[in-house]
């Protein structure tokens, strides 16, 4: 390709929905060797749908879903929307939850109809000293299908399981192939379970998976790679991703995501899919040839 100026690159980028903050962001993008991508909302649509509601007690599966969804009315997490929407589709009436509390990266808890309800991952159950070993095998089956499976606890006892699936964006697979051919290593970082993450990564040819990652761990991963001489781009959409975006050589925000993510980024992708990273990389390389 012919070398192009920064102004031309910025203009071409903008036309394609790739907003480049400044010359520095573009220059750094040309030197990146590793791209870390968040799973939910970046590789996937970020619009999970309820697939399973199972009772492990004398409740019906609808009761389990009602308790879970009542609690999730208080949460803005994409998982919460999927559970509430799934309950509404089944025609369930949701009572109000009291004392709602969200535990970042783990789940939610509160009281519904006078009962203590908790919903979340293994770490959430560990927090409440609830033993999950007898259902881990079934959970693993759901996870290996790429689903996010969550425990529902009632009064400190395991009461059921709900699972959701978040479809992969139609453009993700080709974009990852293109990023590979541009010489980049792709690492998935997600707060989701390792099995779920691996099931999603396998079909996409992702090079490395970091799962069960808390928001502060995403930043630590960026710092660790940079400390070992790598040039890192981090792509994400959530409030959770903002610290990692700010620490990366290039922060790439999905324009469909949280404002704070956009503010922390050197590049914003209006289209909200990985094709924008391919475009940004090509523009960056074409520009750098001109600067040098
Ligand atoms: P991600 O990196 O995929 O956005 P989070 O860090 O937000 O993940 O959450 C990690 C895990 O914690 C989720 O996969 C889920 O098991 C649990 N969790 C977080 N928030 C909720 C919630 N509102 N309801 C149920 N589970 C939750
Ligand atoms: Mg996310």
Per-chain topology:
Elements: H1 6-15, E1 18-20, H2 23-31, E2 34-38, H3 39-43, E3 49-55, H4 61-72, H5 78-89, E4 97-103, E5 107-112, E6 115-120, H6 122-127, H7 136-144, E7 148-154, E8 157-165, H8 172-181, E9 185-189, H9 194-204, E10 208-210, H10 215-227, E11 232-236, H11 242-247, E12 250-254, H12 259-263, E13 267-269, H13 275-291
Parallel strand pairs: 2-9, 2-11, 9-10, 11-12, 12-13
Antiparallel strand pairs: 1-13, 3-8, 4-5, 5-6, 6-7, 7-8
The chain binds adenosine-5'-diphosphate and magnesium ion (MG).
Description of the structure:
Belongs to the cation transport ATPase (P-type) (TC 3.A.3) family. Type IB subfamily. It comes from Aliiroseovarius salicola. It is found in: Cell membrane; Endomembrane system. With 292 residues, the chain is α/β, with parallel strands linked by helices. The protein contains 13 helices and 13 strands. The chain binds adenosine-5'-diphosphate and magnesium ion. The site of magnesium ion has 6 residues, from helix 3.
Short account of what is shown:
The protein is of the alpha/beta class and 292 residues long. The chain contains 13 helices and 13 strands.
């Amino acid at each position: 390709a012919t070398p192009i100026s920064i102004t031309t690159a910025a203009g071409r980028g903008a036309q394609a929905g790739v907003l480049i903050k400044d010359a520095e962001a573009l220059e750094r993008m040309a030197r990146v060797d590793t791209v870390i991508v968040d799973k939910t909302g970046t590789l996937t649509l970020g619009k999970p749908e309820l697939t399973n509601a199972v009772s492990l007690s004398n409740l019906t599966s609808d009761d389990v879903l009602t308790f879970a969804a009542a609690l999730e009315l208080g949460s803005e997490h994409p998982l919460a929307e999927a559970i509430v929407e799934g309950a509404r589709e089944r025609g369930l009436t949701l009572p109000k939850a009291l004392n709602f509390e969200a535990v970042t990266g783990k789940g939610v808890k509160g009281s519904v109809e006078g009962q203590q309800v908790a919903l979340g991952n293994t770490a959430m159950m560990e927090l409440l000293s609830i033993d999950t070993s007898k259902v881990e095998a079934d959970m693993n089956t759901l996870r290996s299908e790429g689903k996010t499976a969550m425990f529902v606890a009632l009064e400190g006892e395991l009461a059921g399981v709900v699972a959701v699936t978040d479809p992969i964006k139609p453009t993700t697979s080709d974009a990852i192939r293109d990023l590979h051919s541009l010489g980049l290593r792709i690492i998935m970082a997600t707060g989701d379970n390792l099995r779920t993450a691996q099931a999603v990564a396998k079909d996409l040819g992702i090079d490395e998976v970091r799962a069960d990652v808390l928001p502060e761990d995403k930043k630590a991963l960026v710092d660790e790679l940079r400390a070992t001489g790598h040039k890192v781009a981090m792509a994400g959409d959530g409030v959770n991703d903002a610290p990692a975006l700010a620490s990366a050589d290039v922060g790439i925000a999905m324009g469909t995501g949280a404002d704070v993510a956009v503010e922390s980024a050197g590049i914003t992708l209006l289209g909200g899919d990985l094709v924008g990273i391919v475009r940004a990389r090509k523009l960056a390389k074409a520009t750098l040839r001109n600067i040098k």
